[in-house]
Design a protein that fits this description.
- By secondary structure, the chain is an alpha+beta fold.
- The protein has 2 domains: 76 residues, Winged helix-like DNA-binding domain superfamily/Winged helix DNA-binding domain (Arc Repressor Mutant, subunit A); 43 residues, Dna Ligase, domain 1.
- Helices cover 34% and strands 18% of the residues.
- It has 4 helices and 6 strands, in the order ααβααβββββ.
- The strands form 2 sheets. The protein has a 3-stranded antiparallel sheet with strand order 1-3-2. A 3-stranded mixed sheet has the order 5-4-6, with no helix packed on it.
- Helix 2 crosses helix 3.
- The longest helix is centred in the first third of the chain and has 13 residues.
- The N and C termini lie far apart (33 Å).
- The structure holds zinc ion (ZN) (2 copies).
- One zinc ion binds next to loops.
Length: 131
């Protein structure tokens, strides 16, 4: 596992203490919404404002270090960008799980008629803890 310092620099971002803090929380939680992230980052940096957090998140999203995950009936979640994968979303507890998903076998026009930028596949259901 690469360290956060290196990850930030590989994405053309300065490795500030706050960004490293954000990434370590995200690594720990997997998928997190901005309110929960703000609650946690404040324990590390009590003076950080929500605006500063948003600004950092926006930069890391823009530089593709973070990915946005939109789930039905739930706040937008964020995760550290990983290889292509799908998500399972529990309709009961709202938990989001990563699942391997082979996007190579999907049928879509693989010519220059459409430039693919992002793929989001979300399976909705009830997780094993809630069943
Ligand atoms: Zn559940
Ligand atoms: Zn994920």
């Amino acid at each position: 596992m690469k360290n956060f310092d290196m990850m930030l620099r590989e994405h053309d971002l300065k490795a500030t203490k706050q960004r490293i803090g954000i990434l370590s929380i995200m690594q720990d939680k997997g998928h997190i919404n901005i309110e929960d992230l703000y609650g946690k980052i404040k324990t590390l940096f009590p003076s950080i404002s929500l605006a500063t957090l948003y600004k950092n998140m926006h930069l890391m999203l823009k530089n593709n270090l973070l990915t946005e995950v939109s789930v039905k009936n739930s706040k937008t979640l964020y995760e550290i960008t990983k290889d292509s994968h799908a998500h399972m979303h529990c309709e009961n507890c709202g938990e989001v799980y990563d699942v391997d998903f082979n996007f190579e076998n999907l049928i879509y026009p693989k010519d220059d008629s459409f430039e693919l930028k992002d793929t989001q596949v979300i399976f909705s259901g009830i997780c094993k803890n809630c069943k």
